[in-house]
């Protein structure tokens, strides 16, 4: 069992908000929360868990020891190494046309990042855009928002933007 997934008890000192992470109260949470896909998950691809931004500073719950959630500056380094914001998505996306729905671009996964289109959890608690978009939190915050990167199936662009901390996105850990 992956101890970082939602449980009904404390894991590594972190209390998962298991009673609220899959309902309409999601957008009101101001504490660490995560959500599994359950019925939204494709039988072919496991997208993992979606987290609100409040979970990202709690490294014990998300990243193994010696790893951390990247800052927006660290994401920018990866994007630049992969060809810049206008081209990086093709080298970051997993190279499987069946996973990225309605893909109009070529994906090579040359970076071996293997980006999956896990979608997002909306403020109303719905999981949307699975198969067509991937969103990943950074550890960088700005008052009520935090930085994220977005990759979609119809563009080679990687979009860096500020998003509401209550949304549910994927998290990628990098080595310290």
Structure description:
With 176 residues, this protein is an alpha+beta fold. The chain has one domain (10-175). Helix content is 11%, strand content 24%. It contains 3 helices and 11 strands, in the order ββββαβααββββββ. The chain has helices at residues 59-62, 72-81, 88-92, and strands at 10-11, 14-15, 34-36, 49-51, 67-68, 120-121, 127-128, 133-142, 145-152, 158-164, 174-175. It has a 3-stranded antiparallel sheet with strand order 8-9-10, covered by helices on one side. A two-stranded antiparallel sheet has the order 1-2. A hairpin with a 2-residue loop joins strand 8 (133-142) and strand 9 (145-152).
Keywords:
about 180 residues, three-stranded antiparallel sheet, two-stranded antiparallel sheet, about 25% strand
The chain-level structural class is: alpha+beta
Mean pLDDT, all residues = 81
Number of strands: 11
Shape: globular
Taking all Cα atoms into account, the compactness measure Rg is: 15 Å
Helix content: 10-25%
Please state roughly what percent of the residues sit in beta strands, choosing from under 5%, 5-15%, 15-25%, 25-35%, 35-45% or over 45%.
Answer: 15-25%
Which series of helices and strands comes N to C?
A: EEEEHEHHEEEEEE
**How is the biggest beta sheet arranged?**
3 strands, antiparallel
| Strand arrangement in the largest pleated sheet | 8-9-10
Query: Helix count, per DSSP?
Result: 3
Topology:
Elements: E1 10-11, E2 14-15, E3 34-36, E4 49-51, H1 59-62, E5 67-68, H2 72-81, H3 88-92, E6 120-121, E7 127-128, E8 133-142, E9 145-152, E10 158-164, E11 174-175
Antiparallel strand pairs: 1-2, 3-4, 5-11, 6-7, 8-9, 9-10
